């Protein structure tokens, strides 16, 4: 068990029950930094998945989140867009957590290197051991250990709606920096397309308590314009389930004629 796991506080039982219903059971490190230290309790989640006879990813989808097949559906849509057919040699994932997208990504392609940036030490250690990925030092919003233009596929799922605007924005610059010309950038953000009045009402009445920064919204245009300014063109978008409502998955391709 890693140091971060030993130093965790279990949040109040009532809050945990409610968070469990919306797919967000968390522990919080005593070394709390800007909401980045909230993560699923490693041991308890693994135990529950084993008891249910499911992989941890399927346990999260089927039991905790009540959205069976949600991760596979996103992976299938990315497959349909040719993201995996491009045979990425290097993949980088921010905030893989339990590895539910990581595991399914590795079924679709065979990268030579899969880097992760994950603040939850017990999960990062588990992913390194189980899938042979490379865990990079993770300090808030930097991909400093990854050289410029070195990654074919950069992805983050259900991460940017759990961190502050500044953490997300800083990561966006870094994601554009490390992506190779022609490479893909895939992530989801809770945009205006996920926030009609009914969804806002659902969040306000049923979602989110007990977590400082969840769910965080991100203006879609700001996001798309920023990536365009960094030489990354929006290729596709689709909605996916998030907690009590939805999130928007955006797929960008970095221009072939940019080094930026
Ligand atoms: C809601 S979970 C999503 C996990 C996984 N991507 C999934 O969809 O199952 C958010 C993940 O991001 C991680 N995280 C939070 N802040 C981070 C940061 N600043 N850098 C990297 N990972 C972070 C958390 O530890 C957690 O594993």
TrEMBL record:
<dbReference type="GO" id="GO:0008757">
    <property type="term" value="F:S-adenosylmethionine-dependent methyltransferase activity"/>
</dbReference>
<dbReference type="Pfam" id="PF08241">
    <property type="entry name" value="Methyltransf_11"/>
</dbReference>
<protein>
    <recommendedName>
        <fullName>Methyltransferase type 11 domain-containing protein</fullName>
    </recommendedName>
</protein>
<feature type="domain" description="Methyltransferase type 11">
    <location>
        <begin position="92"/>
        <end position="187"/>
    </location>
</feature>
<dbReference type="InterPro" id="IPR029063">
    <property type="entry name" value="SAM-dependent_MTases_sf"/>
</dbReference>
<dbReference type="InterPro" id="IPR013216">
    <property type="entry name" value="Methyltransf_11"/>
</dbReference>
